[in-house]
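Postdoc handover notes: sequence design on the structure in folder B. Input tokens:
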């Protein structure tokens, strides 16, 4: 670890609502990081189960706990970002986990070494047995990738906190597609210095807040993605939606290869 990297304070925001069955693994994936200069914020939407009882068990390791009604996940995310004080901000939702204990060390070094505004990396969707279900390996950054259906995994994205005030927060009028519009606005519409970190950043869990009702939301989200372009004064190419859906097929294929590799290499 480069000592200069430790000078970068990383704020992590976790949102949750009635996640008593999986919030613990999310919290522990953050507090067990080898990187020390971390601020951790948990934003709960006024859960009615035992989620907050579990969160309070970690009150000495979590820097700020917010529990109150909200207008949905993106309102909760905005609250967390506004409450943060780090140089860089990232997200890890309830039920999901940072890929391993060294992820934040890699991210801190990446920002320090490259003097960037934002970064992203790879992600993996795992099933109930922690086996790969879908793998998303992201290419080196080019704006043109957005026109052929690419976007980085939402929770693999880390952004310098001072930029939020300039470019704005998550919109609350786009349903589950607010993350797509947000990343489109930051990565495509504006000119930030962005560099991929060639590492896995996050393990998404089937049934976590990021994947609940995934299939049901898939087609509706594609229509909202087109709206996201128009909101930002751009017209998406006519082939955007078909290519986005084809990319999902590729991710399932990569997961099958990943499982085969694990099975045959112990």
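Designed sequence:
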């Amino acid at each position: 670890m480069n000592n200069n990297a430790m000078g970068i304070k990383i704020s992590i925001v976790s949102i949750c609502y009635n996640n008593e069955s999986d919030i613990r693994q999310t919290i522990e994936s953050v507090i067990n990081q080898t990187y020390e200069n971390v601020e951790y914020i948990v934003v709960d939407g006024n859960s009615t189960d035992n989620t907050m009882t579990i969160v309070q068990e970690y009150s000495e390791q979590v820097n700020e706990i917010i529990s109150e009604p909200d207008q949905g996940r993106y309102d909760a995310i905005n609250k967390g970002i506004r409450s943060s004080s780090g140089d860089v901000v990232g997200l890890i939702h309830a039920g999901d986990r940072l890929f391993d204990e060294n992820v934040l060390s890699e991210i801190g070094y990446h920002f320090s070494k490259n003097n960037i505004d934002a970064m992203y990396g790879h992600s993996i969707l795992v099933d109930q047995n922690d086996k790969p279900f879908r793998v998303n390996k992201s290419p080196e950054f080019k704006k043109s990738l957005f026109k052929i259906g690419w976007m980085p995994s939402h929770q693999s994205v880390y952004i310098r906190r001072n930029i939020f005030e300039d470019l704005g927060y998550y919109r609350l009028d786009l349903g589950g597609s607010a993350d797509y519009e947000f990343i489109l606005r930051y990565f495509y519409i504006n000119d930030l210095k962005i560099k991929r970190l060639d590492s896995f950043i996050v393990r998404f869990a089937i049934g976590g807040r990021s994947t609940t009702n995934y299939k049901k939301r898939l087609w509706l989200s594609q229509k909202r993605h087109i709206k996201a372009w128009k909101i930002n004064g751009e017209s998406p190419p006519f082939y955007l939606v078909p290519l986005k859906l084809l990319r999902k097929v590729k991710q399932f294929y990569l997961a099958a290869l990943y499982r085969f590799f694990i099975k045959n290499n112990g």
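Context for whoever picks this up: The radius of gyration is 18 Å. Don't rerun without checking with the PI first.
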